[in-house]
Design a protein that fits this description.
There is one protein chain. This protein is mostly helical and 369 residues long. The protein is built from 14 helices and 9 strands. The radius of gyration is 20 Å and the shape is globular. The mean pLDDT is 95.
Length: 369
């Protein structure tokens, strides 16, 4: 594992250098942003907020590695320029929320949009210039004050800052990622949402198939959610292959967020529940190979299994539930990393679905540092 980890860190450093030199866009003297993509297979044009947030986390995680001092100084410089872009008079920050895309009915990309910003703005203080420490605290305070939750506190509402309107978000991975990113943040005042979310998940909001595959829908009990459950049930009956295809593409993405929470709350009763244990047992070499071989647009080009499985495997291998040996894991990882790596450019850019978002989402791989 250490040999593989060293390879990953080396690749991530080279990838970060490539992005800094060839992708980032200067915005004034002290601000930089990572251009937006189009939300992978969904083809939703996005503002720079999401990808900038992802790259902040990548640089932050790399600074935890044993880097040469010049490299660390270089990464810290661009980390602060990216943070400054997010927190200092950002044109997309309105009414305590960031505009993430141009869709008329969901400019914030559900609650997962704000989750990714919280993730970026919750990095360690030691990496940030004083003005960025103050700026990020101000932004997180505004986001926290604006946040809306249902009366049971089991799920959060999305806030459309264009319309000034709160609406429910019943995509399970959106709620999960918000909980995971709040759990990582000491600056967001809604931390009690995490335990409430896990309680709701334990009591039915989190559903898995007989195989352990995670259901894409948040299963709450509001009227709107019950209507959504009926619509989703109909889709399962009429378009079962498409539903299964998409859920398989998102399974590891869900487990990645659960890994973030488990790191902070390993003794939470949720993680010994039957449904969660089944979701871990679902993961096997056969499942990973199928995602790769069928070129699953959600699981090979967007939620890239090679970027997500290392942190999941590192986090949950102690539970001995994942059907994947150390040797199988390492063989799979070496092959998949080489598949996405462009040796001429020295970066992860072998992807044609949404290159900008793909290159930003490499940040998930950095969680093993």
């Amino acid at each position: 594992m250490e040999c593989l980890k060293s390879k990953i860190i080396h690749m991530l450093v080279e990838h970060a250098d490539y992005v800094i030199n060839n992708v980032l866009v200067q915005s004034g003297e002290s601000k930089t942003f990572f251009p937006g993509g189009h939300n992978g297979p969904y083809l939703h044009p996005e503002t720079p907020i999401r990808n900038t947030s992802h790259f902040v986390v990548l640089l932050s995680n790399l600074l935890k590695a044993d880097l040469e001092s010049n490299k660390a100084t270089h990464f810290k410089k661009y980390l602060n320029q990216l943070i400054r872009y997010l927190v200092d008079s950002n044109p997309y920050f309105k009414k305590g929320q960031f505009i993430q895309r141009g869709l008329a009915n969901d400019t914030c990309n559900g609650v997962i949009g704000e989750a990714w910003v919280i993730e970026a703005l919750s990095i360690e203080n030691g990496y940030l210039d004083v003005d960025n420490q103050v700026g990020r605290a101000t932004i997180l305070e505004a986001m926290s004050a604006r946040a809306g939750f249902d009366s049971s506190y089991h799920f959060a509402y999305r806030f459309d800052c264009q319309k000034g309107k709160l609406t429910p978000d019943f995509t399970f991975n959106h709620q999960l990622w918000l909980a995971a990113c709040i759990e990582d943040s000491q600056l967001h005042s809604k931390a009690d949402f995490v335990n409430s979310f896990l309680s709701g998940a334990l009591n039915g909001a989190f559903q898995v198939r007989d195989t352990g595959l995670i259901n894409h829908l948040y299963h709450g009990n509001t009227l709107k959610n019950n209507i959504n459950k009926l619509a989703y049930k109909r889709a399962e009956l009429t378009r079962s292959k498409k539903v299964n295809y998409k859920e398989r593409g998102y399974h590891l993405f869900n487990l990645f967020a659960f890994s973030k929470i488990y790191k902070k709350q390993p003794s939470n009763v949720f993680f010994s529940s039957d449904n969660f244990c089944k979701s871990l047992k679902y993961v096997s070499l056969d499942v990973l190979e199928e995602l790769s071989n069928e070129n699953n647009i959600y699981g090979s080009h967007y939620n890239v299994s090679a970027f997500e499985i290392p942190f999941i495997y590192q986090t949950f291998s102690e539970l001995d539930l994942i059907d994947l040996s150390q040797a199988e894991f390492e063989i799979y990882m070496h092959r998949e990393l080489d598949k996405y790596w462009n040796a001429e450019q020295n970066c992860f850019c072998n992807n044609k679905v949404d290159l900008m978002t793909f290159m930003a989402r490499v940040y998930e791989l950095s969680y093993i540092v």
